[in-house]
Amino acid sequence: MPQSGHAFLSTRIRHGLRLSPFLPLSLTACQTDNISFLHPAGTIAALQREWLIEIVIALAVIIIPVFVGVAFCLWRYRLGNRNAAFTPDWSFALPLEFLVWGVPATIVIILSLLIAGSETRHSPERQIGTAQPLDIQVVALNWKWLFIYPDQHVASLDTLVLPVGREVRFLLTSDKTMQSFFIPSFGSQIYAMAGMVTHLHLLANRPGRYLGENTQFNGMGFQGEKFTALALLPDQFTQWAQHARTSPVTLNDETYRKLLKDGDDRQAMTDLGVKADTPDPMQPQGLSFSNVSDDLFRNIVSRYHGSSAHQGPMPQ
């Protein structure tokens, strides 16, 4: 017999209470879902917003006089104004030339020097602070993202979990087509390419749930290739890592071959025989893997360079 609305709601509430050990984590993660650097949640995104504001103000020095001048000319030299002087014989006016070309050129030079200095100091491959960052290895697949935590020996699919207040160093590659890794609220888009490792440093300043996505077209599943970035408090991140270590799904060669198949995270879970509606408290936030090999990321990159690439340290 179908359940009444009240009975169904009560059942859902009882089911939710079974997740109580991770309830604070889940609530924290669902408070926000920001998708723009105009509402920054990270150090780099905050800097990018400042740069945008500075550029808009500087360009307004050029744009506003142009719009005002166009309106003035339309009014001044309208057909019905008999008092406007018509002097078509002049050919050069030094003050006007300086105004038209000199002011924009000066502003462009100033902006170039201003942004070039900031971009150099905050280049994606440069560390933001002085503390030891957390390493996260990112593998772009069609059409999902695999995040590997080498120090914790765990991984997650389409859910990036990172601690608030600790810098993260991303090592990114692709095992499929070229893709673009971007979390607007944290800043800095960067590409992931097969056989190559790109670096990106980000720092989350406040907890929340944020949008991450691939912005490089890479096939018909491109529009759905998004992931959730969860910025958690340090103790909550530790709880998540400990819970991920107990995941019954291990990331071995057989598991990874299934992940390599084109498809989203739901398709991957089906291939792995994992139910999407499992009561695992971490499951709604993505599939976790345990017992991740130290050499997994290295091997993914190396196999595009032949057997000789397996020798020596991992590309940095």
Give the topology.
Layout: H1 5-17, H2 23-29, E1 33-34, H3 43-76, H4 94-121, E2 134-141, E3 144-149, E4 154-157, E5 159-163, E6 168-174, E7 179-182, E8 190-192, E9 198-202, E10 208-214, E11 226-232, H5 234-245, H6 253-259, H7 265-271, E12 287-289, H8 296-302
Parallel strand pairs: 1-10, 2-6, 5-11
Antiparallel strand pairs: 2-3, 3-4, 4-12, 6-9, 7-8, 7-10, 10-11
Helix pairs in contact: 3-4
Biggest sheet statistics: 6 strands, mixed
Task: Report the uncertain regions.
Answer: 1-32, 278-284, 308-316
What is the H-and-E element order? HHEHHEEEEEEEEEEHHHEH
General shape: elongated
Instruction: Please report which band the strand proportion falls in: under 5%, 5-15%, 15-25%, 25-35%, 35-45% or over 45%.
Output: 15-25%
Count the strands? 12
- How would you describe the oligomerization state of the chains in this entry? single chain
Task: Tell me the span between the first and last alpha carbons.
Answer: 61 Å
Structural class: alpha+beta
Please report the number of helical segments: 8
Mean pLDDT: 82
Rg result: 27 Å
Helicity level: 25-40%
Key features of this structure:
about 325 residues; alpha+beta; six-stranded mixed beta sheet; 8 helices; elongated; disordered N terminus; disordered C terminus
